[in-house]
Amino acid sequence: MISILDRYKDKTVAFEHVFPINYYEGNIEPSEGTVFVFGSNPEGRHGAGSAKVARERFGAVYGVGEGLTGNAYALPTKDLRIPGTRSIPKEKIIESIGKLYEVARSMPDKQFKVAYRTKADEASLNGYTGLEMVRMFMEHAIPNNVWFSKDWEPLFNPPNPIFVNHSGGAVGSDAYWGEVGKRYGVVSYHYWYDKKTPNGNVEISLQEYEEGEDHVRKANESLHRKPERFMNLLARNWMQVKNAEEVFAVGRFKNKMVDGGTGWAVQMAIDCGKPVNFYDQEKCVWGRHADGRWEKADTPVLTVDFAGIGTRQLNENGKRAIEEVYNKTFGH
């Protein structure tokens, strides 16, 4: 079965043709027909943000972490028992959203208004960006009595597919992929762990970090380097690869491998069978790794979810290559 998100990624179905979306404007005000849907935690500690509003104005019961109490619905998206953000996996949040929709369908006389309104590249207290949350809400058919903030309309119903650049935001190639992408409406997720990087906007969880460590060690079976000193950055790089359909990197080849920190992300992508597009900025040539080998290639076209990464020592050749990828993808 093809999910709504998969159909969207394939760019074959526009949002408005999948289901109607209802929007409210401004803040959610208490009324007899309104249910305030807010992000909660399994412990039901409604002490800040929309959770506090739910408790003080809509009758949410302290200690109830999921479900309907009063005129409020608690949707667990952050576990306070786990350090850091993104403490509840996306799959679990999607499951809870399904439960919310079931309750909404059983109460057609009520309007369930979702309090989230974070921007596409802005993370809420749970660590997920607005676009990530929208994609999670889209994983089930949305009942017509579930309403979202008008601020989210461009995310639910964009004129074109929203491209997302999964990156680290480091100076050089990472930053340039993001800078040029802004001209085309590309959203950039710059992942970080433990210590916030200058461009970081998405903090990864301990679980995601540990998952990254495993992939770094797997990559080192091919690279034969010493990753321990830079593990914070290298393990984070796995999130770039994991969330991308393809990797687009700039740097240089050395000893038949991609040099520097970029080589780790490239090797992790190769290990898990994802296509890699690599531009050698010294030889001024694109290569593509797929089906187990490198081949010379033309300027590639971006996928909707891509990892735009590369060397910190980006030169004019590399900048021009990145610009050409965007020009070819978007046609201008």
Structural account:
The two termini are 35 Å apart. It contains 10 helices and 16 strands. Strand 14 (285-290) and strand 15 (293-297) form a beta hairpin. The model is unreliable at 1-18 (pLDDT under 50). The strands form 3 sheets. An 8-stranded mixed beta sheet has the order 9-8-7-16-10-13-14-15, sandwiched between helices. Strands 1-6-5-2-4-3 form a 6-stranded mixed beta sheet, sandwiched between helices. Helix 6 runs parallel beside helix 10, helix 7 (206-223) crosses helix 8 (231-242) and helix 8 packs across helix 9 (262-271). The longest helix is centred in the middle third of the chain and has 18 residues, at 206-223. Helix content is 33%, strand content 21%. It folds into 2 domains: 4-156, Leucine Aminopeptidase, subunit E, domain 1, CATH 3.40.220; 164-330, Rossmann fold (3-Layer(aba) Sandwich), CATH 3.40.50. With 332 residues, it is an alpha/beta fold. The protein is elongated, with a radius of gyration of 21 Å.
